[in-house]
């Protein structure tokens, strides 16, 4: 049954954003299982937990307490067990510095949080339905930042 | 000179000796020859005497023979005995002839011989008569015969006597001659020995003399060799070369070093005037030709100067001189010396000029000294010198003043200086002093001193090691009172810190604006979109109206925040200037605005744009802002037409640039057919947050054009706007080529 679903984990400290995120997937007609955590530390703990079934895509907010998105991304990429999971940065800012940093650290895609719910739905649906293999092999700085 | 003397004397001496010995030998030889001749004569005479004696004996015996035969005949009367008698008689005649011949040079013997001949004849007369009588008579009875016979016998005794007399005479001759011969025999060896001895003596003397002369010559030769070697070295050391010019056969000889002076290998070319001239500096060929002619005319060369050019391009100054030398054979040779005096000349020139310069320099030094004195006072610095050998310090007057003391009021030393140095900074000075002693250099020092009036002053010292012309090593330093600068820089530091703080705060504000302000706004907008999607139907008309207004207000806030961010980013981002194709950036802008352009059905015409050195993304931003500005302020219901034109121009032709130079510029004009604006607002529109219209009529924050101005200025360009209300607007951008 698990193979039919796309497992998605979001790490975001903002409650509203977590709500929008889950609502958006609820409204999308895609078979997804969405799991949310409140910060980077929680995400790492979740991934490290032996009973956890590893997600297919991790959505990572950058501005988080305890363990922020950049630090969390570094840890993910250092761990042999889950370094190959696709990581989508999911941030309010799309500052050059952040985009550059996360690209270098090995994130797969960068999403700027939209200010319209319909836009959010569209962008998330796009991300989830991307052919990851194809996207990753042709990954470059120009297509890293996903634009609507 | 002594060499020549010896040679001369010895040769004359030798000649005399050899002449004498020649004469002596010839003389002795002649004597010897004569002697030997005498001996041979004497021996001939001796022989002669013997021969005469022998012949005399023969004569006597032949007479006897004839006598005997005669007697035999007389006794036997046999004629057979007469045959030997005749033969003996013939022999007697022969012997007489012989004797006559032998004694022809001796008159006494001739006389004797003649006497003897007479006696013998007489005797033969007798014997003849016997033989005739014998035939006819009997001898024994004939008295005549007997008388004759006795007479004849007596004659035989006479012959005997005569012969004896002759033999005696010859005997005396023989004795005399024998003694003469013996004398000669005795003298000859003595003479010969004497000759030999004399010759030997002469030879020994000559040999001795020659050996002496050879020794002397050898010594002289060694001396000559040595002096030749010395002169060879001297030539190299003193940069001179020698030459010989034989005027008789016009042959030249150059010494090795003369070749070296010319920059050539010794004896590498034939020594002659044509080859020499190849080395002479072109400017001096004429004068060297004159010099050579002079040598031929005057047979000597006074000091002459000329320059040569070596193969390696070096120009050298030479001095030549020569004197005539005539040898014993009468050969005329000019012996000369050519000297390279380039270095001496330079030294001389240097000395001459340095003397003149010295006065000048001295004057300049005095002026400099005075001006540096003044400069020290004005610039608040003092200088000092530390002599490494004596460890003596010397301070300039102002150095004393800086310490708050009267000029030269104390003997400066490191200890004395330390008394003035602030206790906390003494180590700096001590370390520097050690470093000066060890490495002869010190780092730039900053330290405080406590002036004699108690005030703390900040000093800066730099120093460098220096060796003066007399070779004295010292450290020359300059110490400046930098208290004022120090205070100023301290204030500046504080200012800078404040500024840095401000900038930090600003960037923090930027961060807040970009993240923390945006986040709630984004959420508000998302919630609005949620309500719009899900709950709109449940709202009353008022509710719907208010929701729309909330949406607009929040959108506007978003635009404001974005514009602000963009503006501040224009300032902050790293400015990477690179070759930028404006066409590419323009097309990017068109792409970015494509929806807007399509919506407004705008027509945009543009020329080919140039390539400039700039920040590409800012160029795109510039075009986007200008185009969107034109689109935004289009006339209602009129499709916007935007023309972009490029031209090249020079500064002085564009009055707005306020630049009268011929600097070249690209001029890009954006003209539209929009609503335009009053020309008096042409500058205002580039100010931040400045708007000419109500925000309900035209959406805008008043940031876009401010960003444009900023971008253009960043690229050393200028932007101007010109318009009339309702006549469309033109934005003109100038970029330097």
Describe the structure.
Chain A is an alpha/beta fold and 148 residues long. In chain A, 44% of the residues lie in helices and 19% in strands. A six-stranded parallel β-sheet of chain A has the order 2-1-3-4-5-6, sandwiched between helices. In chain A, β1, α1 and β2 form a beta-alpha-beta unit. In chain A, α1 (15-27) packs across α5 and α2 packs parallel to α3. Chain B is α+β, with helices and mostly antiparallel strands and 737 residues long. Helix content of chain B is 60%, strand content 17%. Chain B contains 18 helices and 17 strands. Chain B has helices spanning 2-76, 82-102, 107-136, 143-237, 256-261, 273-277, 285-298, 342-378, 397-402, 414-420, 426-439, 483-516, 518-534, 541-572, 582-592, 594-600, 616-632, 704-714, and strands at residues 240-246, 251-254, 301-309, 315-326, 332-340, 381-387, 393-395, 445-450, 456-467, 473-481, 578-581, 603-606, 611-614, 641-650, 664-671, 718-723, 729-736. The radius of gyration of chain B is 76 Å and the shape is rod-shaped. Chain A binds chain B through residues 14, 16-17, 20, 23, 63, 92-93, 95-96, 113-118, 120, and chain B through 514-515, 518-519, 521-523, 525-526, 529-530, 533, 558, 573.
Give me a quick take on this structure.
Chain A has about 150 residues and is an alpha/beta fold.
Topology readout:
The complex is a heterodimer of chains A (148) and B (737).
Chain A: E1 6-11, H1 15-27, E2 32-37, H2 40-48, E3 57-60, H3 69-78, E4 86-91, H4 96-105, E5 109-112, H5 117-129, H6 132-137, H7 141-144, E6 145-146
Helix pairs in contact in A: 1-5, 2-3
Chain B: H1 2-76, H2 82-102, H3 107-136, H4 143-237, E1 240-246, E2 251-254, H5 256-261, H6 273-277, H7 285-298, E3 301-309, E4 315-326, E5 332-340, H8 342-378, E6 381-387, E7 393-395, H9 397-402, H10 414-420, H11 426-439, E8 445-450, E9 456-467, E10 473-481, H12 483-516, H13 518-534, H14 541-572, E11 578-581, H15 582-592, H16 594-600, E12 603-606, E13 611-614, H17 616-632, E14 641-650, E15 664-671, H18 704-714, E16 718-723, E17 729-736
Parallel strand pairs in B: 12-14
Antiparallel strand pairs in B: 1-2, 1-5, 3-4, 4-5, 6-7, 6-10, 8-9, 9-10, 11-13, 14-15, 15-17, 16-17
Helix pairs in contact in B: 1-2, 1-3, 1-4, 2-3, 3-4, 13-14, 14-18, 15-17, 17-18
């Amino acid at each position: 049954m698990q193979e039919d679903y796309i497992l998605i984990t979001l790490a975001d400290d903002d409650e509203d954003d977590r709500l929008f995120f889950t609502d958006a997937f609820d409204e999308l007609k895609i078979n997804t299982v969405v799991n949310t955590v409140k910060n980077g530390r929680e995400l790492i703990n979740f991934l490290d937990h032996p009973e956890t079934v590893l997600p297919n895509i991790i959505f990572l907010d950058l501005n988080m307490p305890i363990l922020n998105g950049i630090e969390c991304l570094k840890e993910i990429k250092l761990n042999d067990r889950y370094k190959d999971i696709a990581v989508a940065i999911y941030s309010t800012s799309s500052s050059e510095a952040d985009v550059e940093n996360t690209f270098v650290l090995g994130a797969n895609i960068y999403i700027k949080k939209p200010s319209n719910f319909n836009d959010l739905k569209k962008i998330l649906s796009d991300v989830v339905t991307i052919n990851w293999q194809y996207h990753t092999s042709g990954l470059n700085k120009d297509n890293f930042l996903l634009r609507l | 000179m002594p060499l020549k003397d010896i040679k001369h004397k010895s040769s004359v001496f030798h000649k005399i000796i050899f002449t004498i010995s020649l004469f002596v030998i010839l003389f002795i030889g002649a004597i010897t020859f004569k002697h030997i001749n005498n001996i041979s004569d004497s021996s001939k005479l001796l022989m002669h005497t013997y021969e005469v004696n022998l012949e005399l004996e023969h004569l006597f015996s032949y007479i006897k023979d004839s006598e005997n035969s005669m007697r035999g005949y007389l006794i036997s009367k046999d004629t057979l005995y007469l045959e030997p008698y005749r033969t003996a008689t013939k022999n007697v005649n022969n012997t007489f002839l012989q004797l006559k011949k032998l004694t022809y040079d001796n008159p006494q013997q001739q006389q004797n011989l003649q006497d003897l001949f007479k006696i013998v004849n007489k005797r033969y007369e007798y014997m003849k008569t016997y033989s005739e009588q014998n035939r006819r008579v009997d001898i024994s009875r004939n008295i005549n015969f007997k008388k004759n016979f006795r007479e004849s016998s007596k004659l035989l005794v006479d012959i005997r006597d005569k012969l004896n007399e002759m033999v005696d005479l010859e005997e005396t001759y023989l004795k005399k001659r024998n003694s003469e011969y013996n004398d000669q025999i005795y003298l000859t060896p003595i003479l010969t020995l004497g000759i030999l001895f004399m010759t030997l003596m002469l030879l020994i003397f000559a040999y001795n003399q020659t050996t002496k002369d050879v020794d002397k010559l050898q010594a002289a030769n060694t001396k000559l060799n040595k002096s030749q070697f010395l002169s060879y070295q001297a030539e190299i050391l003193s940069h001179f070369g020698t030459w010989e010019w034989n005027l008789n056969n016009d042959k030249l000889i150059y010494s090795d070093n003369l070749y070296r002076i010319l920059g050539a290998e010794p004896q590498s070319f034939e020594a002659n005037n044509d080859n020499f001239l190849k080395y002479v500096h072109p400017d001096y060929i004429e004068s060297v030709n004159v010099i050579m002619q002079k040598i031929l005319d005057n047979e000597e060369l006074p000091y002459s100067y000329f320059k040569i050019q070596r193969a390696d391009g070096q120009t050298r100054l030479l001095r030549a001189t020569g004197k005539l030398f005539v040898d014993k054979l009468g050969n005329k040779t000019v012996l000369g010396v050519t000297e390279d005096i380039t270095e001496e000349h330079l030294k001389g020139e240097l000395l001459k000029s340095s003397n003149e310069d010295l006065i000048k320099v001295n004057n300049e030094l005095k002026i400099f000294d005075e001006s540096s004195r003044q400069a020290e006072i004005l610039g608040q610095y003092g200088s000092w010198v530390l002599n490494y050998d004596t460890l003596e310090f010397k301070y300039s007057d102002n150095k004393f003043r800086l310490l708050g003391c009267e000029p030269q009021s104390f003997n400066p030393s490191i200890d004395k200086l330390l008394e003035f140095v602030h206790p906390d900074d003494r180590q700096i000075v001590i370390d520097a002093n050690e470093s000066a002693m060890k490495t002869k250099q010190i780092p730039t020092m900053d330290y405080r001193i406590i002036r004699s009036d108690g005030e703390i002053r900040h000093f800066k010292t730099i120093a460098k090691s220096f060796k003066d012309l007399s070779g004295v090593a010292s450290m020359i330093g300059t110490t400046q009172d930098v208290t004022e600068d120090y205070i100023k820089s301290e204030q500046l530091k504080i200012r800078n810190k404040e500024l840095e703080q401000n900038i930090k705060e600003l960037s923090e504000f930027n961060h807040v604006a970009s993240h923390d302000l945006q986040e709630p706004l984004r959420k508000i907008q998302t919630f609005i979109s949620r309500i719009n999607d899900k709950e709109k139907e449940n709202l009353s008309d008022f509710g719907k109206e208010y929701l729309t207004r909330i949406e607009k207000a929040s959108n506007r806030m978003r635009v404001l925040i974005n514009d602000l961010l963009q503006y501040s980013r224009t300032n902050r981002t790293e400015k990477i200037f690179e070759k930028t194709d404006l066409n590419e950036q323009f097309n990017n802008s068109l792409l970015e605005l494509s929806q807007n352009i399509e919506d407004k059905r705008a027509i945009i015409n543009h020329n080919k744009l140039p390539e400039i050195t700039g920040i590409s993304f800012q160029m795109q931003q510039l075009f986007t802002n200008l185009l969107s500005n034109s689109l935004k302020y289009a006339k209602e219901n009129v499709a916007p037409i935007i023309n972009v034109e490029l031209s090249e121009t020079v500064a002085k032709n564009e009055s707005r640039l306020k630049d009268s130079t011929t600097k070249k510029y690209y001029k890009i004009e954006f003209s539209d057919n929009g609503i335009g604006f009053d020309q008096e607002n042409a500058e205002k529109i580039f100010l931040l947050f400045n708007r000419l219209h109500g925000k309900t009529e035209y959406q805008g924050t008043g940031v876009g054009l401010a960003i444009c101005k900023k971008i253009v200025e960043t690229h050393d360009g200028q932007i101007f706007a010109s318009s009339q209300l309702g006549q469309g607007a033109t934005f003109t951008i100038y970029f330097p080529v």
